[in-house]
């Protein structure tokens, strides 16, 4: 691999990062707050490619011998091809079923609207239900969106995966479902659940972590959200 090929690869990788950062593709890899760093990395790689090409042309104007780098440098093509050809799906029910809930006690709870249905994240509901005994949730209509996972006993959970940094460290927060549950539930189906708070609790079969129940009154399939990960529990 000569300098020209290296420059081309660096440029291609940088352009791919820019494309990912300017679309929702980057959300498959890192949390939304890291978008500026993804874009910056793309700009730096493109600038490096341009500098490498300029340096090589300047050198070859004085020296007509082309120097080749070790063949192992062709491995640089692998991350480029992976980004271009393979857009990994967001982590779903398989990961959730094999990973214990990551629910942790929040530092506090934000005020909720006094009237109307409450639209909450999975982690927000779970935190309030477990660590605030549902004080702000009682007698309120709740709307929560997540994907379905089933444990080995067939118990259905509504789940969102949360990120600390990137998809590699994603962990689930789970809500067990009771009440008017659809008779057939497929793992990885995204649902908007309308329901009510219930003080019922269970333990995650993987790590014995606390899992609250939600009493379902209505369940509606919805498309996968553009950002399938939930960051509200670790911001």
Automatic annotation (TrEMBL):
Keywords: Membrane, Transmembrane, Transmembrane helix. Signal peptide: none annotated. Residues 130-229 form the DUF1980 domain. The chain crosses the membrane at residues 36-55, 75-97. InterPro entries: DUF1980, DUF1980_C, UPF0703_membrane_permease. This is TIGR03943 family protein. The lineage of its organism: Bacteria, Bacillati, Actinomycetota, Actinomycetes, Kitasatosporales.
């Amino acid at each position: 691999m000569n300098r020209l090929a290296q420059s081309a690869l660096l440029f291609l990788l940088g352009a791919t990062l820019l494309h990912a950062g300017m679309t929702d593709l980057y959300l498959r890899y890192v949390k939304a707050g890291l978008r500026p760093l993804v874009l910056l990395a793309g700009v730096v790689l493109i600038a490096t490619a341009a500098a490498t090409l300029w340096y090589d042309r300047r050198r070859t104007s004085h020296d007509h011998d082309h120097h080749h780098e070790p063949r192992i440098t062709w491995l640089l093509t692998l991350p480029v091809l992976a980004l271009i050809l393979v857009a990994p799906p967001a982590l779903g029910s398989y990961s959730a079923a094999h990973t214990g809930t990551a629910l942790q006690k929040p530092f506090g709870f934000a005020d909720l609207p006094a009237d109307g249905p409450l639209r909450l994240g999975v982690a927000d509901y779970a935190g309030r239900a477990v660590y605030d005994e549902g004080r702000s949730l009682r007698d309120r209509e709740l709307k929560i969106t997540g994907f379905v996972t089933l444990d080995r006993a067939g118990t259905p959970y509504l789940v969102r995966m949360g990120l600390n940094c990137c998809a590699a460290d994603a962990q689930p927060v789970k809500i067990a479902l009771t009440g008017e549950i659809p008779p057939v539930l497929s793992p990885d189906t995204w649902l908007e659940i309308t329901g009510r708070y219930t003080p019922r609790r269970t333990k995650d079969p993987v790590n014995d972590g606390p899992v609250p129940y939600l009493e379902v009154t209505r369940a509606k399939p919805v498309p996968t959200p553009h950002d399938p990960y939930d960051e509200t529990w670790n911001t």
